[in-house]
Specification:
- 41% of the residues lie in helices and 18% in strands.
- It is an alpha/beta fold.
- The chain folds into 2 domains: 151 residues, Rossmann fold, CATH 3.40.50.2020; 57 residues, PRTase-like (Ybab, Chain: A).
- Helix 1 packs across helix 2 and helix 2 runs parallel beside helix 7.
- The longest helix has 23 residues.
- It is globular.
Length: 217
């Protein structure tokens, strides 16, 4: 099984999340950029507001792909203290890199949201949506940052992910929905017929559309 595109993946997730339809305490958060396309389908189907949530990796010195922590758009910082110690990373480096990623988040949020304030998630049922997970490191940081904002319930909904990652993330959330958990997993894009880059303009358009849809309710 694989998905035609992100829209179809969102529609599949929406069916699994139909039990949330019509509830007033639900917020859908999409991880830009591709995750927002999936999340928009979910938000439209269950009648919930949509927002973006960005978590940026704090990369190790000389190896930016290795995450020693992450910064979330809410300002929360999640650090892998054990890894930082074993690599001998200085506090100054962590501080500098954290600030750099925070500024990048601010820039992107301003671009995506404009003047629209972030949705309050305290005491809400939050559905966190991406177009898939691989290692799950950034997703894990996102979950932990969201928990600090005290949602009533946290649901992770992703179309595809490898068994080990899904098992690990399942322990971190109240509910995890992942219709496709292939034993042989090599890349998220391999499970989509169309998996092209989602432009910023598409993210902005989907957020505006969902806001207008909410106002008309």
């Amino acid at each position: 099984m694989h998905y035609r595109d992100r829209e179809e993946a969102g529609q599949v997730l929406a069916k699994e999340l139909a039990f949330l339809k019509g509830r007033k305490d639900v917020v859908v958060l999409g991880i830009p950029r591709g995750g927002v396309v999936v999340a928009a389908e979910v938000a439209k189907a269950i009648g919930a507001p949509l927002d973006v949530y960005i978590t940026r990796k704090i990369g190790a010195p000389y190896n930016p792909e290795l995450a020693i922590g992450a910064v979330a758009s809410s300002g929360e910082i999640v650090l892998d203290e054990g890894l930082i110690m074993s690599l001998g990373v200085s506090p100054e480096y962590v501080e500098r890199e954290t600030e750099r990623q925070r500024k990048e988040i601010e820039r992107r949020m301003a671009k995506y949201r404009g003047d629209f304030p972030p949705l309050d998630i305290k005491g809400k049922t939050v559905v966190l949506v991406d177009d898939g997970v691989a290692t799950g490191a950034t997703t894990l940081a996102t979950i932990r940052a969201l928990k600090k904002q005290e949602p009533k319930e946290l649901i992770l909904a992703v179309p595809v992910g490898p068994p080990d990652t899904i098992a690990r993330l399942k322990k971190e959330v109240d509910k995890l929905i992942c219709p496709l958990v292939p034993e042989v997993f090599w890349a998220i894009g391999a499970f989509y017929a169309i998996f092209d880059q989602t432009p910023d303009e598409e993210v902005i358009r989907l957020l505006k559309e969902c806001r207008q849809g909410q106002r008309m309710r």
